[in-house]
Write a structure and sequence with these properties.
Largest sheet: 8 strands, mixed
Helix content: 40-55%
Shape: rod-shaped
Structural class: alpha/beta
Number of strands: 25
Number of helices: 25
Distance between the termini: 47 Å
Strand content: 15-25%
Length: 753
Amino acid sequence: MKAATRLRSTLRVRTMLAWARLRRLTRNKNLRAVGAAIATLVLLTSLRAYDPRIVTELKERTFDTYQRLKPRAYTDLPVRIVDIDEASISEYGQWPWPRTRLAALTRRLADLGAGVIAYDVIFSEPDRTTPSRLVDDLRDSGAPDLDQTMKLLANLPDHDQAFADAIGKTGVVLGFAATRAANDNRPPGRAGVAFVGVNPTKVLAPFHGTVSSLPIFNEKAAGIGGINLSSLDRGGIVRRVPMVFSDGVSIYPSLAIEALRVAQNQKSIIVRGTGASGDSDTGHDALIDMRVGAFKLPLTSNGESRIYFSRDRPQRYVSVKDILDPAKEATVKPLIDGAIVLVGASAAGLMDSRATPLGGPVPGVAIQAQLIEQILAQDFIERPDWTNGLEIVLTVLFGALVAGLVLMFGARFSFYAGVVGFVAGLAGSWIAFSQFRLLIDPIFPSLAALAVYIAVERVLHVASDREKKFVRQAFGQYLAPELLTQLENSPQGMRLGGESRDISVMFMDVRGFTPISEALTATELVDFINTLLAPLSDAIQDELGTIDKYIGDSIMAFWNAPVDVSDHATRACQASLKMRAALGALNDADVFGFSARGFDDSRVKIGVGINAGLACVGNMGSQRRFNYSAMGDVVNVAARIESASKALNVDLLVSEDVARRVKGIALLEAGEILLKGKSRPTKIYAIAGDDTMAGSPEFAELKRHHGALLTAIKTGEGPEATVALARCQELAGEDMQDFYHRLAEQITSLHAT
């Protein structure tokens, strides 16, 4: 008893070896997939936190698309561009014009009622046409009558002075350009700048020099502002414009802010940054917003304003030619009266154009105008600092979610779920922009999720290939192709290594194999076995059976392991019927050549026994060599039933356990036999045919007479048994005749007694 227990324990340990290996493969596969997901997320999250140019450009391109889909609606606000256009150049000659013409333009705009005049032009050099410059040129030329000419010119007004006088008599704002090139040229500040919270000089990137208008003009100007349309380190598409500048000591507003300040007769502007009362501490110095008189605008952390562009409209522009034409006063006065007027150039030759998110170059002065428009309309797009943190969190969440979905539900479901998630994220981002003017990037988190999906799926794919290779090596020789494919696709569904399963077991043996083997040479015997077992094995595998082993001329097979087969008992019976049909075809064609060689019994016969019940299944053997097999009482009973088939003269026998489970199989009770090792008789049944036969009226009649026959034999009523036997032989097929011949012998014994 102890020896048997030790043997069973040893076998169970060995049967678990293959399953343990497969579980390690699966476990390692999931661990590797999780590791790949974590590594990918760490890399991408770090990339997003560092925010390199390529990531920033990807976000900005997304936001550009939003603006193209829904640009800012244009409304006719009191902002006008007095345009140095092609018509003006054609009328007044090439640029730069004499400052006297600019003085006339300034006075004309004041007469038309301009609220403020802002020049998006820098007058950094003296007018070359001014009389004083001509005097110097004539002095060096040695021309005749020089003294008289110089006296005449000296009495003419100075052009720069004329322009300066015009600037001083009207509210004019001039511009300067901040540069990285160092110089001592600093324009005088006109606006007072107050700040709440952090000092802007600690946040703003300092400029080292400027290009500004001549002091004669700056001294007369009501305001001076920066005209840079991008920070000192960025070019390309204009999306944000600096609103405040600093040289590290002083603070200067932009041209648009100065124009708005002067138009409201304000003395100063207020800049609010982190650290202000009522604001949460973000952990770093940043600007938040600024106020110019009655208007407030949000700022990026480094003092820029994002522009929400509208389409470039001709309604914004008034040609200088029309302004200086007295005949058109009635047309231009309603446009200029009370407006913030920006003087700039759209003429192609002056090279003052910029690209915007809406596409196509626009004059730089138009961007200044749109800045003022959105401040007046209080219609801004914003990207607060917290959006960066939100996008990093979304990157991690989306990536982790996709990794979890792939591990739990597989690649296909996860792909579709990812598509739905991407669409939902894109929709949420669009709603945030279109309804709340917030810019939240959906692209990078989605791309991160895609990268995690690819990484995890790739790891799982490689691991699955290993699993499939292992499954094919371990089961390919004795598992049906359909089950092998199922096993490859879902190896985690197996339960190997000594597991108790409800299975159906079949044993098949060749009748009269000894005389056959004695009549054949060794080579002929091998050919005979291979020719016979091949179609019989196919019949088993066609019905999803697992071939356990070949034992000489015998086959052991079972169903419902290692992969579930719900109707395993019926499948086993159908396989036996297919084996009967296949063998009949081989015999009819004399494939083995026994009839041609004159054998007394030229037809090969088999016996099949089938039982169903609980058995221990698993890979049994050593680490180097093992076989997936079943063991237990259900296996022994199946073998005994197969042995009993010879004595009963019937080729296909099943146990009562099988008979209770099957559907669509024509079964006839074959009596009760005492199997070896059993203390009580076991009822067995013969397989008479398939579902077609089972549902026929003839079989119902046969079954009724067959029952009467067995009853008569049990009760010893010979005459009644003889009548029932005759009727059974008449109704039964050829495959059952030998069985009834055997019962006829029992009836003969009854008559003898």
